[in-house]
Amino acid sequence: MLVKNWMSKTVVTIEEDDSMQHAMSLMKEHKIRMLPVVARGKLVGVVSDTDLKRASASDATTLDMHELLYLISKIKVQDIMTKTPITVSQNFTVEETAELLMRKKISGCPVLDDDGLVVGVITRDDLFKVLIMLSGLGKKGIQLAFQVEDRSGSIKNITDVIRKYDGRIASILSSYEYAAPGHRIVYIRTYDIDRAVLPKLVEELKQVAMLIYIVDHRDNKREIFHDLVA
Q: Keyword Repeat, does the record have it (predicted)?
């Protein structure tokens, strides 16, 4: 999945010669926490709500309200912005971007096209939307987690049982994180299962794999069978 398909394409930008007060107004109006700073259409920096708070918290704390408003109207964005901003290409994958934001401890960054122009912004909220889509949460089905042997056919054994009970598969995700050696953790979201046969389904699933937990998002019920240990 590429960033260009998930980023926010309506980008609110600000000029480097604009005032800090204008930056504050834009963030409040659009309910955003970051503004790409441009000069002649090219990205030259980023100003965040953290930059604004940092600039307001120094000498400004000793000023009265009128003096403070005057001060922030005179401070230029170029004086408080981050001048070497972290960016991603529109052709970055969502996974690469998530790893970058986490490693750099930032909430989002501008997205650039091949000419270096700002074409979007990607934030943690956008990445959460991807996670929700991948997990199939919107279908309000049943999520099952298993530990399975890391071999061909181990997942098919599970899905065959689910389909036997007329279950439809919304998503399958797997990870080696927290899995025992030679195993992996598999997360399956399914729907269209008759709740009346769910107990029987669970017992049959336990015969083909180690069932870790089951969560019924429709009825808000969950049962934990095993705890994963880091």
A: yes
